[in-house]
Amino acid sequence: MQQKLWQKGALDQSGLAQQVEAFTVGKDRELDLLLAPYDVLGSLAHIQMLSECNLLPAEELPLLRAGLIEIYKDIRAGQFEIGANTEDVHSEVEFRLTKKLADLGKKIHSGRSRNDQVLVDLKLFTRNELEEIVSRTERLFNLLLQLAETHKDKLLPGYTHLQVAMISSFGLWFSAYAESLADDMDQLYTAYKIANKNPLGSGAGYGGSLPLNRRRTTELLGFENLNYNVVYAQMNRGKMEKTVATAIASLAGTLSRMAMDMCLYMNQNFGFVKFPDVLTTGSSIMPHKKNPDVWELIRAKCNKLQNLPAQFTAIMTNLPSGYHRDMQLIKEDYIPALGTIKDCLNIACTMFEHITVADNILDDDRYLYLYSVEVVNQLVLEGVPFREAYIQVGQAIESGQFSKPSDIRHTHEGSIGNLCLDDIREMMQDAVRQFPFETVRARLEALLVL
C-alpha cells in the first residue's frame, strides 16, 4: 500500500486505517479525475514560481516540467487513473512524478498544502466549466432570439393565474426567455469573478515561512487577482461553490420555467407547439401518446439545481474559520451539477431547433376575451375615462355583445409590436464581453510549452 502524503512513519496493519479511508475518501477518486488536468497546471505554475524564487535549482525545473507535461498528456489521452491505494489526485500526480524522477518529484509540494492544491484545482476547473456554460447559454440565447424574429407575428394567448388573460405572441415568449438568460449571464460573471482569484500559496490556511511569490502564480495561471489573506483563501472553499451554485440556480430557474411552458403548450388542450416524434416518448399502453419527457426532465433536473445553494449553506452553517472535512461533501454535488446544467442547455437547444409553432391560434372562439383590454384601450384613445371604458366592456361581455377589434397595435418598448430584440442582444453581448476567456486560455497554454 502506498504511503499517504500526510503519513510520517510505518503503515497501519490493523485494518482500521482502511475502514477510515473508505469512509473519508468518499467519491474523491472518481471526481478527482475531472480535476486532474488542473492539478498538473497548478503544479506547473507552482514550480515555475519556486524556481524564480531560488527555492528550486534552475537545472531541476526542466525535468519537473517535462514530467508534469507528460502526465498532463496522459490525462488528456484518457491514460490516467487514480490507484485504489492512492488517496486523491494530488497524491497520484506526485507519486507518478516521484516514480519517474525519484526524490526530485517530491519537491513539487514545497510551499503548499493539499488544502490550497484542491482550492486551486477547483477554481481552475470551475473557470473552464463556466466558460462552457457561458458558451451553451449564449447558443440557446441566440436560438431563442432567432425564433422570436421568425415567429414574431404569430399571436399566442397570455395567461395570468393560468387563466386566459391578454394577447401575447411567440415573438414575445421566445424573447422573454432570451432576456432572462441575459440576466443569468450577469450572475454567471459574478460567479466567475469569485472563482478567478488565486488561493495558491495559502497553504493549510496560514501561509508559511518560505518566500513565495504568489503574484507570480496568479499571473501564470491567468487569475485576475489573489485571495490575499491566507485565512480567507481557505474560507473561500464552499463560499465559491455556493456563489457558483447560486448563478447556476438562476439559470436553472429560467430553464425550468421554460420547460413547464413547453409541457403545457405541447398538451393537446393547448396545441401551440409540436416536436418530432423522435424527441418525444410514447406509452406502453396508449398508442396515441407523445410525452414531453425531455422537458419534464429538464424541469426536474433544474429544480434540483435550484436547491443547491441551500444545500451548501446547510453544510457550511456554523463552521469556524479554517479547513474542515465537511467541505468534501460539497464537491460531491458541486462537480456533477456543472455537468447537469450543461446537459440541460444542450438538449434545450436541440428541442428548439426542431420546434413547430402553430398558426392562427387566436382564431378559436375560446380566446375571444383576450381582446377585452384592446377594446378598453381603444375607448380610452377615443376619450372615454378608463374606469368607464372598463365597465362598458365588462357589460358587453356579460350580455354576449362583445366583439374583437379588427386591428392590434402595441408600440411601446418590449411589447408585441416592438420586441427590442437588438437591445436584448446587446445586453447579452455586453455580459459575455466581460469574461476574460482568451487571456486565461493563453496563460494556461503557455504553461504547457516545453
Write the element-wise H/E pattern from the N-terminal end onward.
HHHHHEEHEHEHEHHHEHHHH
How far the N terminus sits from the C terminus, by CA atoms, comes to 34 Å
| Low-confidence parts | none
Number of strands: 6
- Can you tell me the CATH architecture of the domain at 125-152 and 168-198 and 229-363? Up-down Bundle
Q: What is the CATH topology of the domain at 125-152 and 168-198 and 229-363?
A: Fumarase C, Chain A, domain 2
Number of helices: 15
Strand order of the largest sheet: 1-2
What does this structure look like?
The strands form three sheets. A two-stranded antiparallel sheet has the order 1-2. Among the domains are: about 20-110, Orthogonal Bundle (Fumarase C, Chain B, domain 1); about 125-150 and about 170-200 and about 230-365, Fumarase C, Chain A, domain 2 (Up-down Bundle), CATH 1.20.200. It is built from 15 helices and six strands. α9 runs antiparallel to α11 (about 325-355) and α12 packs across α13. The chain is elongated and about 95 Å long. With about 450 residues, the chain is mostly helical. The model has no long low-confidence stretch (mean pLDDT about 95). About 60% of the residues lie in helices and about 5% in strands.
